[in-house]
Design brief:
The protein has 682 residues and is an alpha+beta fold. The chain contains 17 helices and 24 strands. Helix 3 packs across helix 8 and helix 6 runs antiparallel to helix 10. It starts with a helix and ends with a helix.
């Protein structure tokens, strides 16, 4: 009997000790997850504001969600109406992590997490009963909803710390800081802008110390999909800019509160700001900045004249000027009309992009060269221009179509010069000259009016040489006088057009095969032969055109992939984020066969033996995105960085806080500098 009493006494002591050092609810029943309530205190004797913890224990690989989980989940929901002595309850959310579940980007927590619950009591002299009905979602390969009914009784009495006190205090200390004065940050400025298609949230943050691995999370009451913000750092890594870009259809409200978490390693800050979505227009930008963009557009348009894409059109114009060198007034008017044609075509191109954007179609510089029919038309025009320069035949086509072929328009008809300018613009789009990319990026992210203004500015820049000649026609006196040498000049210019035609034919091979090129050549030879022997030239011309543009309908002409990008991974078939996380350096090249600047970069830089050896020595993973044909994956990748034209080259480092974007025209020096920057941060 005495022994039994000793055992009972021991049990009572142990129970009392446990009650002092642990106060918790039972774990909820579940396989993938368990939930319980824990308290840092055994009793409450003096406070109206206390904290308890909602503790999640998840199986390995399983995750639950933050308050803005994205498209793939939902946050926990807590009902506490059956509790007693509780005036209010607030969930405090720890800094989350971004991860991918079932191919969808989400934000939340893995393995183990404690959510502090801030309780405001009605009367601290009365005991408190916390009754929670919790619903939540956990996901791994599948998603399983969970629920729990939890009860925790906190009596009145002398307050003692429990075994859970340390864990709850640690969680509270790791919550995002809300007092800017004592945080690691100095200043935060957040604005929101909208255009016809998108809404952008731009956060500018200054830190007391340099950022190492910054992350930014966004929460709104109406919920938004999880996207990776575009993060850029200053040279000293103390100034951060983070840009979130969402489809405008997702945001209906013009005024709302938004929460931003700026996290860096174990430091984080929560900033709540009332936002008003402002419309992007000229007045929202300093006039000095807008003036700079206009100057960049003018300079970019001017440089386009020196790009190889435009040389065929320039050759035709130079030949026309030499043929009329004795008539300065005619040259003046001719060049003015050509300038007008260039400016008008840029304006029409901007209008076309605006229309496509309103229809929800992704737009980009040079996108028409992704369409085989457009390429066939260009090839057709170039072929007739070049053969005409070689003197093989005079173009003979129906009168109703003659306005579209420059060489068939009478000499006193300036429509010919207008279409010269129009055609020059079309041929300029595959080239991204220096400064053009900057102007395009600004234009495609602004309102329709600003886009048109910037495109017209580029048109004026490209037209400047023509305007200069029209203002000073006496400059033609410095050109050689007409003579037999012009015959050889025609042959040279014809060769330029043939070279351009070969380039277009190579691009067409991405859509068709060599059978298509063979049949096209046979058609051309047949046409030339028939018009030589028969008088029904118009009829023969129409029949030839019908056959030529019918070829794409036959399966025998479909393309076969003959490309050999040895050593390059395909952007559209890999998980880029995973590749970056697993490798020190990743180099991405977005290119296209129709992009002349891309080919220049490839031949003169990327294919150089020294660059290849540099990539191999430093174990650089090379990724290439081929935009020769339309690709939604590549379009999304470019828009992520607010780029709407190519070439686009970017370098990632696993241990570097931000990516490095290279200029349109690559150089070996810039690539070496980028790699050295990443290697120094390993």
């Amino acid at each position: 009997m005495l022994r039994l009493i000793k055992y009972l006494f021991f049990i009572i002591v142990i129970f009392s000790f446990t009650s002092l050092w642990a106060l918790q609810s039972d774990w909820s029943s579940g396989n993938e997850s368990q939930v319980r309530l824990i308290s840092p205190i055994s009793h409450n004797d003096s406070s109206k504001n206390i904290y308890v913890g909602l503790e999640y224990q998840l199986q390995k690989g399983w995750k639950t969600y933050w308050q803005s989980p994205g498209d793939g989940g939902f946050p926990q929901e807590i009902i506490w109406k059956n509790s007693t002595n509780i005036k209010s309850l607030e969930i405090l959310w720890p800094t989350p992590e971004q991860f991918e579940i079932l191919g969808i980007q989400s934000v939340g927590y893995a393995n183990h997490v404690i959510f502090p619950l801030h309780l405001t009591l009605e009367d601290f002299s009365q005991p408190t009963l916390v009754v929670l009905d919790v619903t939540y979602l956990t996901c791994k390969d599948i998603c399983i909803p969970g629920s729990a009914h939890l009860e925790l009784f906190i009596p009145v009495g002398e307050k003692l710390l429990t075994a859970h006190s340390h864990n709850i205090e640690k969680t509270l200390s790791q919550l995002p800081e809300r007092n800017l004065q004592i945080s690691f940050l100095k200043n935060i400025d957040i604005k929101s802008f909208a255009n016809e298609k998108t809404v952008s949230f731009i956060a500018k943050v200054d830190a007391k110390e340099f950022f190492e691995n910054p992350k930014v999370f966004l929460h709104t009451d109406f919920g938004l999909p999880v996207i990776e913000p575009i993060i850029s750092l200053s040279a000293n890594a103390k100034h951060l800019e983070a840009t979130f870009i969402f489809n405008k259809k997702l945001i209906n409200a013009k005024q709302f509160d938004a929460q931003f978490i700026i996290a860096d390693n174990n430091r984080s800050f929560l900033f709540t700001v009332p936002l008003e979505v402002e419309t992007s227009n000229v007045s929202k930008y300093p006039m000095s900045s807008f003036f700079i963009i206009i100057m960049i557009a003018l300079l970019g348009g001017l440089i386009l004249n020196g790009m190889p894409c435009v040389l065929p059109v320039l050759s035709i114009k130079i030949l026309s000027m030499l043929q009329h060198i004795e008539h300065p007034s005619s040259i003046r008017m001719s060049f003015m009309v050509t300038s007008f044609g260039i400016v008008c075509s840029f304006g029409l191109l901007a209008f076309f992009f605006v229309l496509l954007r309103h229809l929800g179609v992704s737009v980009g510089w040079g996108m028409q060269f992704q369409q085989p029919i457009f390429l066939m038309i260009i090839a057709f025009v170039l072929a007739f221009f070049s053969f005409n320069l070689f003197g093989l035949f005079e173009i003979s086509i129906p009168r109703f179509m003659s306005a579209g072929i420059i060489n068939q328009i009478p000499k006193n008809n300036y429509t010919r010069d207008f279409f010269n300018g129009f055609f020059a613009t079309l041929m300029a789009t595959p080239c991204s000259a220096p400064f053009v990319g900057t102007a395009l990026t600004f234009a495609f992210t602004q309102s329709s009016m600003i886009m048109i203004v910037i495109f017209v500015a580029m048109g004026v820049g490209m037209a400047l040489p023509y305007l200069f000649v029209s203002l000073f026609p006496q400059l033609i006196k410095f050109f050689p006088q007409p003579g037999p040498w012009m015959k050889y000049l025609k042959y040279f210019l014809g060769c330029l057009l043939v070279a351009t035609l070969v380039w277009i034919g190579n691009v067409l091979l991405n859509h068709f095969n060599y059978y298509f090129i063979t049949v096209t050549i046979i058609l051309l030879i047949g046409y030339l032969s028939l018009i030589y022997f028969f008088k029904y030239k118009t009829f023969i011309f129409i029949i030839t055109l019908v056959i030529f543009f019918s070829l794409p309908n036959f399966a025998v002409f479909k393309s076969v992939n003959l490309k050999d990008d040895s050593g390059w991974l395909d952007l559209t078939t890999i998980n880029l984020k995973q590749l970056i996380s697993q490798n020190d350096i990743v180099f991405v090249d977005i290119t296209a066969d129709w992009c002349a600047t891309c080919q220049f970069n490839k031949i003169n830089v990327l294919q150089k033996k020294s660059i290849q050896e540099l990539f191999s020595k430093n174990n650089v993973f090379k990724v290439r995105g081929d935009w020769t044909k339309p690709s939604s994956a590549i379009e999304s990748f470019l828009q992520q960085y607010q780029r709407f034209g190519i070439p686009f080259n970017i370098v990632y480092g696993k241990n570097y806080p931000r990516e490095i974007i290279l200029s349109e025209l690559l150089s070996e020096k810039k690539i070496i500098e980028a790699l050295n920057t990443l290697l120094l941060n390993e």
